[in-house]
């Protein structure tokens, strides 16, 4: 997060309830529940960082700067953690004379959903709620998300929630086993979200 930017824990009253989900800031108590699905091969195939050992995962998950930008997704029906969302406040690009006005105006959004909970519309529900947090609570003017182009489920989710594909980078993303592959970039502006 940008220095001075609010952490998710202080930006609103929690929890955030949707029809089927509860979203709340992550705590170290969520380490085991998130590790259970983040260690699965079908998940590690696409995520930006994957630990080989539970202890390595726990150390990174517990870092204050990480916890400040992660929400856990809890299925209300059984109170089970079924995913996590990252909302990272970033600076927009700006020329030197106006750079201060671009501080903390963008949010990078990411997500992981337990494969056992996929195919039920839960990721769409969670990401729509996260967009509300980004725009209404964090005051973002723009939300971005990116993925490997071959991660079809991820970019289709971006499109389902109204994000616009802004580009495909040719061999711009280094995958841990596939080498240099294409990546997709998506975004949504606050004014676009407000009318959706």
Automatic annotation (TrEMBL):
Which parts of the sequence belong to the N-acetyltransferase domain? Answer: 21-191
Note the superkingdom of the native organism: Bacteria
Question: What GO molecular function annotation could you give as one example from this UniProt entry?
Answer: acyltransferase activity, transferring groups other than amino-acyl groups
Q: Which SUPFAM superfamilies does the UniProt entry name for this protein? A: Acyl-CoA N-acyltransferases (Nat)
Instruction: Spell out the InterPro entries in the cross-references.
Output: Acyl_CoA_acyltransferase, GNAT_dom, N-acetyltransferase
Query: Which Pfam family, giving just one, matches this sequence?
Result: Acetyltransf_3
Q: Which PANTHER family match?
A: GNAT FAMILY, PUTATIVE (AFU_ORTHOLOGUE AFUA_3G00765)-RELATED-RELATED, N-ACETYLTRANSFERASE DOMAIN-CONTAINING PROTEIN
What is the protein name for this chain? GNAT family N-acetyltransferase
Q: Which species is the source of this protein?
A: Nocardioides bruguierae
């Amino acid at each position: 997060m940008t220095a001075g930017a609010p952490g998710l824990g202080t930006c609103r009253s929690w929890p955030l309830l949707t029809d089927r989900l509860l979203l709340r800031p992550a705590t170290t108590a969520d380490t085991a529940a998130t590790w259970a699905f983040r260690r699965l091969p079908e998940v590690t195939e696409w995520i930006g960082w994957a630990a080989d050992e539970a202890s390595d995962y726990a150390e990174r998950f517990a870092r204050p700067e990480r916890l400040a930008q992660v929400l856990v997704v809890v299925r209300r029906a059984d109170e089970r953690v079924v995913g996590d969302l990252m909302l990272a406040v970033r600076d927009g690009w700006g020329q030197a004379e106006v750079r201060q006005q671009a501080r903390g105006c963008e949010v990078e959004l990411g997500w992981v959903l337990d494969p056992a909970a996929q195919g039920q519309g839960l990721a769409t529900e969670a990401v729509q709620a996260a967009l509300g947090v980004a725009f209404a609570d964090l005051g973002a003017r723009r939300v971005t998300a990116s993925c490997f182009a071959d991660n079809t489920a991820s970019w289709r989710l971006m499109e389902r929630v109204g994000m616009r594909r802004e580009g495909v980078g040719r061999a711009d993303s280094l995958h841990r086993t596939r080498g240099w592959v294409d990546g997709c970039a998506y975004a949504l502006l606050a004014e676009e979200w407000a009318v959706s």
